[in-house]
């Protein structure tokens, strides 16, 4: 891959970022950058002896707040770090815009890569850990550095040691839309469970609770779906007896589901395989 790339004039839309002079700087300086400007800065490596230098974060901070999660209002880009192993199959990211650059510690035998994808809409800080986890699972199958889910995490601008190896990638495409990967609305889950009623009230209720659990709904939210009020209260069992479906039965089903280990949510949409375009 090339060591430099031409910067494309992809968009003039501004993204909120925070800038820092060094790792000990705890006072974020808010800036609004076009993606073109960010691409330019993230594909230009500085040569220096140590990695310490200017840093940035794809975050909007509250006024006068110091660096830290408590001060973050929203996140404007997805950042994915790959350390000590090869980059993901970038062919799966073919429809999205992204920049990738190696970090200061990178070498051919010990690769260190960072990828930045602009978001079509910013994500509020309170939702970011959940959304980052879903995006990471969809794009990397959970193989990237989990520390990046911290909305206040700061990142060094690209650098390399004197004579050191470095590389960059810029791939044009659509901005990543977080809503494609967000939780399915409760009404949709209930509708799908109703379509499974031929399997029985209990089986379809268990399916509903399990799917909402996997989709990262809280126990309170799943209980509020009130499957007991949607299905027939009474039905005749195989022995001709009346078999009621009570609120207690629904709540017991939900509690049973939430006593299990969570399942990883699946991507909301299939990833499209295309040939990546470098530089």
Tally the beta strands: 13
Helix content class: 10-25%
Largest sheet: 5 strands, antiparallel
Order of helices and strands: EEHEEEEEEHEEEHHHEEH
Number of helices: 6
Distance between the termini: 8 Å
Residues in β-strands, percent: 15-25%
**Spatial arrangement of strands, main beta sheet:** 5-6-8-7-11
- Computed Rg: 23 Å
- Residue-averaged pLDDT: 84
Shape: elongated
Structural class by helix and strand composition = alpha+beta
What are the salient characteristics of this protein?
279 residues, alpha+beta, 5-stranded antiparallel beta sheet, 4-stranded antiparallel beta sheet, 13 strands, elongated, disordered N terminus, disordered C terminus
What are the SSEs and their pairings?
Layout: E1 14-20, E2 29-34, H1 35-42, E3 46-47, E4 55-57, E5 59-61, E6 72-83, E7 98-102, E8 112-124, H2 128-140, E9 155-156, E10 159-160, E11 168-171, H3 186-194, H4 201-214, H5 219-223, E12 234-236, E13 242-244, H6 247-258
Parallel strand pairs: 3-10
Antiparallel strand pairs: 1-2, 1-4, 4-9, 5-6, 6-8, 7-8, 7-11, 12-13
Helix pairs in contact: 3-4, 4-6
Give a written overview of the molecule.
With 279 residues, the protein is α+β, with helices and mostly antiparallel strands. Helices cover 22% and strands 23% of the residues. It has six helices and 13 strands. It has helices spanning 35-42, 128-140, 186-194, 201-214, 219-223, 247-258, and strands at 14-20, 29-34, 46-47, 55-57, 59-61, 72-83, 98-102, 112-124, 155-156, 159-160, 168-171, 234-236, 242-244. The strands form four sheets. It has a five-stranded antiparallel β-sheet with strand order 5-6-8-7-11, with helices on both faces. Strands 2-1-4-9 form a four-stranded antiparallel β-sheet. Strand 1 and strand 2 (29-34) form a beta hairpin. Helix 3 (186-194) runs antiparallel to helix 4 (201-214) and helix 4 (201-214) packs across helix 6 (247-258). The protein is elongated, with a radius of gyration of 23 Å. The N and C termini lie close together (8 Å).
């Amino acid at each position: 891959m090339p060591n430099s790339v031409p910067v494309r004039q992809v968009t003039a839309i501004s993204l909120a970022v925070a800038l820092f002079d060094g790792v000990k700087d705890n006072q974020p300086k808010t800036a609004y950058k076009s993606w073109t400007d960010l691409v330019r800065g993230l594909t230009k490596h500085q040569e220096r002896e140590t990695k310490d230098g200017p840093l940035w974060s794809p975050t909007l901070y509250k006024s006068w707040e110091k660096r830290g999660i408590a001060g973050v209002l929203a996140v404007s880009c997805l950042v994915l770090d790959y350390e000590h192993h090869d980059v993901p199959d970038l062919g799966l990211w073919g429809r999205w815009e992204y920049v990738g650059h190696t970090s200061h510690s990178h070498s051919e035998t010990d690769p260190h890569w960072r990828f930045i994808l602009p978001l079509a809409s910013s994500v509020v800080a309170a939702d970011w850990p959940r959304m980052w986890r879903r995006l990471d699972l969809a794009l990397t199958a959970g193989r990237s550095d989990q520390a990046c889910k911290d909305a206040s995490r700061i990142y060094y601008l690209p650098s390399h040691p004197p004579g050191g190896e470095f590389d960059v990638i810029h791939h044009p495409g659509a901005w990543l839309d977080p809503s494609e990967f967000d939780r399915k609305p409760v009404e949709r889950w209930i509708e799908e469970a109703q379509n499974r009623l031929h399997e029985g009230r209990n089986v379809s209720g268990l399916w509903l609770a399990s799917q909402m659990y996997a989709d990262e709904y809280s126990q309170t939210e799943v209980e509020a779906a009130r499957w007991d009020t949607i299905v027939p209260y009474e039905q005749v069992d195989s022995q001709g007896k009346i078999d009621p479906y009570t609120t207690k039965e629904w709540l017991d089903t939900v509690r049973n589901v939430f006593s299990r280990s969570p399942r990883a949510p699946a991507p909301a949409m299939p990833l499209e395989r295309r040939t990546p375009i470098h530089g």
